[in-house]
Amino acid sequence: MKPALPARLLKTLAPWRNAPAWHIAFSGGLDSTVLLHLLASLANTETLPPISAVHVHHGLQAAADAWPSHCQALCDSLGIPLQVLRVQVQPGASLERAARNARYQAFTEVIGAGEVLLTAQHRDDQAETLLFRLLRGAGVRGLAAMPECRRLATGCVVRPLLAVSRGALQAYAHEHQLKWLEDPSNADPRFSRNYLRHQVFPTLTQRWPQAVSSLARTAEHLSEAQGLLDELAHMDLIAADQPSAFPWLPLPSLTLAPLRDLSDARQRNALRHWLTPLTRLPDSDHWASWYALRDAKGDAQPVWCLADGQLHRCGERIWWLPTAWSEFSDVPVSWPDPQMPLELPGNGQLSFSRNASEGPLVIRYRQGGEIVEVPGRGRRDLKRLLNESGLPGFVRGRLPLVYRGEQLLAVPTVAGAWAGSMDDGQLHWLPQTCDQGLS
């Protein structure tokens, strides 16, 4: 009969037994050392995916230079391959957050499709996370603390020890005479988590001995509540996720009317769910900008600026524009051979269907007052044509115009409503796909 902790771990990891590989986030500390030892031991008796360890070296303190060799020695003794990744931590307001961001960015370079990154956060960590976020005024999603599983790149992160106490891990380590690293920064009370761990929780548990387990259980309840809110958001977004008139435009968008019919609380819930993969979310004080955007007159084009992009309203539709969308140059571009597609810097690709006139041509962007020849309609003002098409305003400045000298020869087809033509050829523009906008 297996000891309780190995059996418990094996049961927790059952949904991922068929993953292509398991990678252990191995810092060398107590928690990850126990997880590494547990999995190495289980691999001797169970059929598990290939196991390897990943150590991220942040270079934030001199003592850390010796940690990779310690990790290598332990992995060698257990027969586990180790990969050491060195990262640069970007300075910022929160060193903890910057180090975490650098660490997970490194992990994304390791995780392959369907593979699993196993991390060693435990029940005490979960309780600390809940209390820390509660003090910061987090909502339900934040108070749900750390999920057992979440996506990471094309794989996922799994935390199989969330139901296990720090004491149980310490007992296992002592029983198996494991040696682990002690990070000196873990004792520094200037870091919020350390202050909670060393100052707040001892006082709480002295008065309420079950405080840690109770807080972790509360996080589970809140995680379940968040799951229900996500289901509600999914239902509400189905109604709003209607195709736009511009399917070639590679940006997330929603129809506004179905959202407007919801209560304010359901609107916020649906938008949080939709925006979560796209940007860091605003705090409660900044949702007034959403109401201003929602309630603006139909001919207005309001913008809501968020951390990683902007939400635009064009008529009865809202569009998400990631920061990278605005990073393009409107400097003219030469097109020496129109028979070949042209890559526009930061602005996608331009090409002709059927025949194209001989080059060289030049690509320019709107200055105002342009006139274009429309088959069957004669010469038309470009601004009026764009208004007729309903093309969102944020796209119009990026619309590539084809010139020979000072003569405007062609404008890209816009939803089939009209097109400039040259020698029976239609001009097609495929705007730049932005991975952030499509995540």
From TrEMBL:
GO MF term list: ATP binding; tRNA(Ile)-lysidine synthase activity
A GO cellular component annotation in the UniProt record: cytoplasm
CDD domains recorded: TilS_N
Gene3D superfamilies per the UniProt record, alphabetical: 1.20.59.20, HUPs (3.40.50.620)
Coiled-coil positions: none
Enzyme class label: ligase
SMART domains: TilS_C
Catalytic reactions on record: cytidine(34) in tRNA(Ile2) + L-lysine + ATP = lysidine(34) in tRNA(Ile2) + AMP + diphosphate + H(+)
InterPro entries linked to this entry: Lysidine-tRNA-synth_C, Rossmann-like_a/b/a_fold, TilS/TtcA_N, tRNA_Ile_lys_synt, tRNA_Ile_lys_synt_N, tRNA_Ile_lys_synt_subst-bd
Binding site for ATP: 27-32
Residue ranges annotated for the Lysidine-tRNA(Ile) synthetase C-terminal domain, each copy included: 361-429
EC numbers for this chain: 6.3.4.19
Record key words, sorted: ATP-binding, Cytoplasm, Ligase, Nucleotide-binding, tRNA processing
Compartment list: Cytoplasm
One annotated GO biological process: tRNA modification
Entry's family note: Belongs to the tRNA(Ile)-lysidine synthase family.
Annotated function: Ligates lysine onto the cytidine present at position 34 of the AUA codon-specific tRNA(Ile) that contains the anticodon CAU, in an ATP-dependent manner. Cytidine is converted to lysidine, thus changing the amino acid specificity of the tRNA from methionine to isoleucine.
Swiss-Prot/TrEMBL domain comment: The N-terminal region contains the highly conserved SGGXDS motif, predicted to be a P-loop motif involved in ATP binding.
HAMAP family: tRNA_Ile_lys_synt
Protein's UniProt name: tRNA(Ile)-lysidine synthase
Organism: Pseudomonas haemolytica
